[in-house]
Task: structure prediction
Amino acid sequence: QISLPGNLFGEGIALWEDSIIQLTWQSRLGMVYNKENLTETGRFEYRTEGWGLTGDKRSLIMSDGSNILHILDPETFKETGRINVTKGGSPLNSLNELEYIREEIYANIWPTSRIAIISPQTGIVRAEIDLTSILPGSQGVGQSVDVANGIAYDGESDRIFVTGKLWPRLYEIRLAIPENS
Result:
């Protein structure tokens, strides 16, 4: 575990090869750490807020709270492209935490209990996951909880996990896929 200075608010992180890449919310500063010992090995700047981060084996993908996902070169951290995310032909804003799962981008929609499943080629939301039924308050946990805000994927076992701000648990979810998909 490492602590950030008080003037930095840590946000999205992603594993990239032997590194952990971390964004800060409004400081426009990213840090690179060695994943084995958490020593800082580099820093980079970006032009937007930092909300979420994931990778697709070629590039890093960053959210900034808008409907735009920024494609970053994982070596230079320079923007190399953008994905404009739409749902029903309209921009879908407030894209937050990201995870790349089975060739698609999963994004928490802040401040909701929904996850958008986005085509990286077109930016079109092809489906949404509604996590309302697993919110801790809906199961009698009785704790104050906030929005869904965590997605993780175990590619080796093909498992998806979700959590949220102040949620007391991590949940494994399975998606029902219609036969005609």
